[in-house]
């Protein structure tokens, strides 16, 4: 199967043209796509008219699919547990737009997601873009003494952290914590396939660096959050209906912009691919 790959930004991301994802892909094409994906971290396929089953089949070309047992029930597809339906939902009277702060999927578990695939099903007339940041670049551009310092540190990842959880009712917070107790992750992760070092921190998930004073921990984390999402490391995806996009959670963080009115709905479907073990329960 022949196709072309065109970079989408100088930091990361590429568009693949010439493949129809409603059709099965042969092994040689999957192997070639994986190489392109490892190189560009994010691959976009525009104009795809795929059913849920075809979306799942395409996702499975990249690895084992997660069944989202640790996710809030409202987000999981009623009959296909491999699918999340990502849309605004009300929790405790508050409208939540899923993924509205920087994160890497499931970094708050000891099996962080290797990859995720997102498909655009309903979009607001304007806004609703998603940003991805290149965490290899973020690591590589740190000064050598800072690299040595963060190489030796770990941070606590807690899914109940972050602005979307401010004001959560205690029972909701406790249930969320029970499903996903906080996990200690290395701040720098070696990518199991490319061998490259990438920062593995995010504003949504990271709460503290154990063993450091509060001021040391807060200062280092906020420096890393700010540095790792500098505009020159970022690709901004302006969604069109029919877009399908796969990203590598081991070397990127992402964030969905909540820049559209609450009168508009936005609906995406997502699969998550199981990653290798990382981190330990706190
Ligand atoms: O809706 C989006 O654009 C991204 C959602 C998200 O952050 C996620 O699926 O992890």
What does it look like?
It is a single chain. The chain is an alpha+beta fold. The protein has a single domain, classed as Clavaminate synthase-like (Double-stranded beta-helix), CATH 3.60.130. The chain is 22% helix and 27% strand. It has six helices and 18 strands. It has helices at residues 27-40, 52-60, 135-140, 144-151, 170-179, 214-228, and strands at residues 4-7, 14-17, 42-45, 84-87, 89-91, 94-96, 115-122, 130-134, 154-157, 183-186, 188-190, 197-199, 206-208, 234-237, 244-248, 252-256, 267-273, 280-281. The strands form five sheets. A seven-stranded mixed β-sheet has the order 1-2-3-15-7-17-4, with helices on one face. Strands 13-9-10-18 form a four-stranded antiparallel β-sheet. Strand 2, helix 1 and strand 3 form a beta-alpha-beta unit. It is globular and about 55 Å long. The chain starts with a strand and ends with a strand. The structure holds 2-oxoglutaric acid. The site of 2-oxoglutaric acid has 10 residues, from strand 16 and strand 17.
Structural descriptors:
four-stranded antiparallel sheet, Double-stranded beta-helix, 6 helices, binds 2-oxoglutaric acid, 282 residues, globular, seven-stranded mixed sheet, alpha+beta
Tell me the fraction of residues in β-strands, as a range. Answer: 25-35%
Query: How confident overall, as mean pLDDT?
Result: 95
Tell me the overall shape.
globular
**Number of domain units:** 1
Biggest sheet: strand arrangement: 1-2-3-15-7-17-4
How many strands?
A: 18
Output the structural class. alpha+beta
- Major beta sheet summary: 7 strands, mixed
Q: What compounds sit in this structure?
A: 2-oxoglutaric acid
CATH architecture: 4-Layer Sandwich
Poorly predicted tracts of residues = none
């Amino acid at each position: 199967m022949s196709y072309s790959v065109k970079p989408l930004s100088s930091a990361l991301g590429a568009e693949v043209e010439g493949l129809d994802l409603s059709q099965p892909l042969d092994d040689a094409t999957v192997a070639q796509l994986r190489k392109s994906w490892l190189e560009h971290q994010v691959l976009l396929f525009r104009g795809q008219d795929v059913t849920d089953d075809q979306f799942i089949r395409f996702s499975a070309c990249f690895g084992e699919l997660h069944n989202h047992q640790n996710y809030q029930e409202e987000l999981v597809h009623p009959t296909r547990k491999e699918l999340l339906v990502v849309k605004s939902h009300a929790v405790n009277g508050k409208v939540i737009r899923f993924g509205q702060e920087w994160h890497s999927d499931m970094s708050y578990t000891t099996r962080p997601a290797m990859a995720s695939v997102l498909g655009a099903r309903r979009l607001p007339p304007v806004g609703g873009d998603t940003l991805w940041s290149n965490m290899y670049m973020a690591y590589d551009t740190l000064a050598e003494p800072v690299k040595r310092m963060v190489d030796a540190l770990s941070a606590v990842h807690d899914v109940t952290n972050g602005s979307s959880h401010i004001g959560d009712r205690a029972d909701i917070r406790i249930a969320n914590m029970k499903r996903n107790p906080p996990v200690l992750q290395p701040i720098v992760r070696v990518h199991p396939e490319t061998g490259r070092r990438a920062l593995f921190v995010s504003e949504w998930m990271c709460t503290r660096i154990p063993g450091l004073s509060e001021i040391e921990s807060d200062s280092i984390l906020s420096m890393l959050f700010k540095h790792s999402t500098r505009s020159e490391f970022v690709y901004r995806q302006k969604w069109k209906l029919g877009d399908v996009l796969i990203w590598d959670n081991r070397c990127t963080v992402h964030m969905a912009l909540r820049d559209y009115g609450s009168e508009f709905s936005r609906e995406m479907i997502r699969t998550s691919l199981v990653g290798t073990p990382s981190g330990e329960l706190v």
